[in-house]
Amino acid sequence: MSLVQLLLFGIVSFFASVAGAICGIGGGVIIKPTLDLFGWVSVSTISFLSGCTVLSMSCYSVVRNMLGGESKVKLATGTPLAIGAAVGGIVGKQLFSAIKAAAPHPEQVGSVQSACLALVTLGTLLYTVNKKSIRTKNVSGAAPCVIIGLILGIMSSFLGIGGGPINLVVLFYFFSMDTKTAAQNSLYIILFSQIASLITTLATRTVPEFEIAALALMVIGGICGGMAGRAFNKKLSGAAVDKLFTGLMVVIIIISAYNTWQYLFA
């Protein structure tokens, strides 16, 4: 990879992580489709690099909030969700590997990921726009939380996005969380699922080829983005965070739809 390409990977990771830390979407849902758009490395490599970046950002944000006494994570709910998401992350990683092995062309895996991401993001956008008129739930109990977390983990790991908007919709609807509380709980869940996904990748020796410089720049971008995003989150109102989230969803849908077409017909 050229120096310009490496720098762009770092820049994308930084700005995606800023938005991810503000909204609680982790950043992977922005990093993955954007790097797919460039087409400079394989789908597997992008998923791996995106996952490592999201892990670094979520780790910083969660730990910093807890150490600073600013955490809004509801451990009774968040921990079972996170455990379920961790298991789901392993299952989702295996599902991705199985589909990749069965596909005659790597591009087909990318098209499936992009199409699924576009549909999931569209559903998220529709919910977000209409959430004031939707009656939410107050799910409790470890077992239901683990099951919900399992589904979240499978979807996010397979899509290579770390969690993102799916987490927020689930936290809004099933647990009646406000925007900022949902954002912190989402990052807590993402942290667990990404740790499990990385361990699985290392244990199964399925780490794709990648450049160390790209990983380093993306991780640094993720941590710096997490720092900046955390600072912005304190200053922004819940309404402003909602607007940013909605705008990002529109952009992601457009990019994912284009990537689907590009993988299939380019």
Characterization of this structure:
The protein is mostly helical and 266 residues long. It is built from ten helices and no strands. The longest helix is centred in the N-terminal third of the chain and has 28 residues, at 75-102. It is globular. The model has no long low-confidence stretch (mean pLDDT 87).
What shape does the CA trace take? Answer: globular
Note the beta-strand portion: under 5%
What is the CA-atom radius of gyration, in angstroms?
Answer: 17 Å
Our count of helices gives 10
What helical percentage do the residues reach? over 70%
Question: Which runs of at least 5 residues are low in confidence (pLDDT < 50)?
Answer: none
Structural class: mainly alpha
- Number of DSSP E strands: 0
SSE arrangement, N to C: HHHHHHHHHH
Give a quick account of the main beta sheet: strands, pairing sense, barrel closure: none
The overall pLDDT, averaged over residues, is 87
| Distance linking N and C termini | 22 Å
Short description:
The protein has 266 residues and is an all-alpha fold. It has helices spanning 3-23, 28-38, 43-67, 75-102, 106-130, 142-159, 164-175, 179-203, 212-235, 238-265. α2 packs parallel to α10 (238-265).
Search tags:
10 helices, 266 residues, 0% strand, 82% helix, globular, mainly alpha
